[in-house]
Write a structure and sequence with these properties.
The protein has 351 residues and is of the alpha/beta class. It is built from 15 helices and eight strands. It starts with 13 loop residues before the first strand and ends in a 5-residue tail after the last helix. Keywords: Lyase. Pfam families: Amidohydro_2 (PF04909). This is Amidohydrolase. InterPro entries: ACMSD, Amidohydro-rel, Metal_Hydrolase.
């Protein structure tokens, strides 16, 4: 069997949701966990495992997360991945107060800017943003894009249990829309109201809780009117849309009934259906979801021009999954778009 790396192909594989972190982030999180382990159970569940854990998996993840010159490149080559779009791993800056969040964002973005300048053939980057800053990180996003050459922003879901449809986050979305760069909505440990019933059964992580958390965040952005306010805003969502594409018809139907009956006086009706905003403003990646039936279904629901490749390295490094997606029932032109073309346009890549 020909390996993904060896197989000749007329397209580059651009992996669009690939996690990275500077060593300073793990140092900071270890210190926070040591001083206040009880303050945030979701943060403790996520980073208590990945930052403090001494088992094989957390060590595997940590070693690869901070590396862009050794094993990461070797494993990209082994899997036949030509280019990664790197972003600060969850929870990123989100659990931090303004000063710490701003410091971490600047350190991470400066590091990432250096990485992409050294290897523009292999890496692009998304900016970390201090969402707890007074301007919701708009100034740091502008600096990272205009001065460091980063290609968008990473949003690791809720910010200290607040979702970013709240008014204080609008300066961030205004900046992203004005700059013309995408925002990647990425999972985080569930917010406080969701955490306990999921954690009780070990469901708060990527098996289920991440999808619940991030799908909720996406739907809040839609029905709150963020995309109505910023019609040019580009949002990217991984894991085949966190199950939202499966629900689109029911979401539209029930939204229409709620609006017609005035069930929620505090929810203002929008001029478009929820699915119309999602199909207009949202792109989907296959991170961690390499299976044909699911991918082809989401392409049908969202449109073929809305679904692009991702691996979810290093959390789900499985070279065999590249081959599964190479074998999708696509035309040569569709396969080029899936692996390269869509990502190049959405993230404005110059490769």
């Amino acid at each position: 069997m020909t390996s993904p790396a060896a197989a000749p192909r007329p397209y580059r594989r651009i992996a669009t949701e690939e996690a990275w972190a500077p060593p300073e982030m793990f140092d900071l999180f270890r210190r926070i966990l040591g001083e206040h382990p009880e303050d945030d159970p979701g943060f403790m569940s996520l980073m208590g495992y990945y930052a403090l854990g001494d088992g094989e998996r957390p060590r595997f993840i940590r070693e690869r997360m901070v590396d862009t010159e050794g094993v990461r490149l070797q494993e990209m080559d082994a899997a036949g991945v030509d280019h990664q779009i790197l972003a600060l791993t969850a929870p990123g800056t989100n659990p931090l107060a303004a000063a710490q969040a701003t410091d971490l964002a600047r350190v991470a973005n400066d590091h990432l800017g250096d990485i992409v300048r050294k290897r523009p053939d292999r890496f692009s980057g998304l900016a970390a943003v201090p969402f707890t800053a007074a301007d919701a990180g708009a100034a740091e996003l502008e600096r990272a894009v205009t001065q460091l050459g980063l290609k968008g922003a990473i949003l690791n879901s809720h910010v200290r249990d607040r979702y970013t449809d709240s008014p204080e986050f609008l300066p961030f979305y205004e900046a992203a829309a004005s700059l013309g760069v995408p925002v990647y909505l990425h999972p985080n440990a569930p917010s406080a109201g969701l955490f306990k019933p999921l954690h009780d059964r070990g469901l708060d992580g990527s098996m289920y809780g991440f999808g619940v958390e991030t799908g909720l965040h996406l739907m809040r952005l839609v029905v709150s009117g963020v995309f109505e306010r910023f019609p040019a805003l580009k949002l990217v969502v991984g894991h085949l849309g966190e199950a939202v594409p499966f629900w689109l018809n029911r979401i539209d139907y029930m939204y229409g009934k709620q609006v017609a009956t005035g069930r929620y006086a505090h929810v203002k009706p929008l001029p478009l259906k929820p699915s119309e905003y999602i199909r207009r403003n949202v792109w989907i990646t296959t991170s961690g979801m390499p299976w044909e039936d699911e991918i082809m279904f989401v392409r049908k629901m969202m449109g073929a021009d809305r679904v692009m490749y991702a691996m979810d390295y290093p959390y789900q490094y499985e070279p065999s999954e590249v081959e599964l997606q190479d074998k999708l029932p696509l035309t040569d032109e569709e396969r080029f778009e899936f692996f390269e073309g869509i990502a190049t346009r959405v993230f404005d890549l110059e490769l």
